[in-house]
Structure formats: structure tokens, C-alpha cells
Amino acid sequence: MAQRHFEGKEHAESYQRYRVSPPQELIDEVLNFLQKRYEQIQEPLDLAVDVGCGSGQGTELLAPHFMTVVGIDISSAQLEIASAKDHAANLCYRQSPAEELPFEDDIADLVISMTAAHWFDHPRFLQEADRILRPGGCLALLSYTMDFELEYGESTSKLNEICQEFYATLLPFRKAYLGPSSLQLYKKIYDLVSYNDKEWHQCLKVPMMMPLSRFIGLVETFATYQGFLEKDPVEAKRLSQTITDRLLEAMGVSSTDTEVIVAVKYFYLLAAKPQTS
How far apart are CA 160 and CA 251, in angstroms? Predict the structure, then answer.
């Protein structure tokens, strides 16, 4: 059964403000995998479909490489924010569940999901992806682990001790549907993919510079924090402020505008639909 979360306007705005885009090197990995499956290929390709696109941070990265890019999401609030931003003329957004994609058969060069596929009904989604992919087309599912690491000079070790406490406190609020590990969940999805031509990759570690306030805001978009917020908003906000204060003290600074390096660890699966004879 598909899971529905993050559909409210306030949370959609937080996604837009705090969630990180996949690195260009990861998008390049997807494109290289796809290009090797076509005997003759020229960019731009015809159609890419980004399923569970949220507020569109990742969808935008596909626009230079395809004639048409369509972001799909179940949440009208997420799509309203995505559509309101300036975006390429060849990019549009449509509301739809991941398990009922509004496309004809054998039409897409790429079906991709960036940090969203864990919410889908996996067998039904994979069946839909197979239906709309043209022969040789690529399925790409990308995500990252939630144990972000911080770097800030000599304070690095202490910062990560505090972060581990933060994550551990939130863990009991993780949705049971997701199991103990997103990485393990995606490995199960990988096993469900019927294509013989498929690859599993972990972990691509990408350092990103951002203000401490954005790191805290990013963690607050996690399903674990949102679960805590739903159950006890006062304690959830108190925890967030306490962690922020401890991180500032460890860094020896007073402003949450101070930038830190946040190491994001990506994992991903790539698979190609067989070519027809």
C-alpha cells in the first residue's frame, strides 16, 4: 500500500526551503547509464518522468537533457510550490499517484524518483514504470541515508556526537512502514526489479556547505521529526532548539547563519528495460 505524507502547505514550504537537490554528478550517472543502453543517442532525449517530485528541486536538473520533463506528485500543495517557481519551458507538473502514471505505454526514456520511492506501493509502481518506459529506457531510484555528518574545524567530532543523539531521539517516531533502514528498504526494491540489467550503488558521499539553520530545518522535514511534532509539538520544538544551542556552543559561535559542511550519503539503483528485437 502506498503511504501519503507531507501533503500540507506548511510542510511543502519546508521541503522547498530546506531539502537538498541531488548533486549533478549523480544526475550524470543516471544519464550515462541511460545513454549506454541506446545504440544511437542524441540529447535532448524525449521524455523524463520524475515521480514523487515534491517541490521540484531534482526535477529541474533534468530539463537540459530532455525535450519534455514531467514532475508527478500526489500532493497539490507540493505541486503548487513547484509550479510557482521559475522553471524551464519544457518542464511541467501533474498530480497523480505513483501507481497510476498518466502516460501512454512505451513513451518515457527515464522514470526517476528522488528520495520518494520508499512511500510508494513498490510492486504497483514498478509495474507502472515498466509500462511507460520505452525499450532501453531507464528506471532510477535515488535516496540518501538520514545520518548526515557535520564538519566544522576542530568541533567536527563533538558536532557528530550531538547529531547522533538527535537522530537517536527521533528514531522511535520512524514510520513502521519504512522499517529500520531506508537503505535496506531500497535494496528490497532493487530485488523486486525484474530487469536483468540493473545496478546497485552505495554510498556516494557529497559534502554541501549550508548555514546551521538550514541543517536543522532539513532534519525537521524528516518523517521521524514530523512524527514527533505530530505527537508532541512542544517537546519536538524544544528538542530542536536544544540541539541547535548545543551545536552552536560546540562550534563556539552564536549565529545559526554560520555555515557548516554537511556530508550527505546517497545510494541509488539503476535499471534498464530490455530492448525489443
Answer: 11
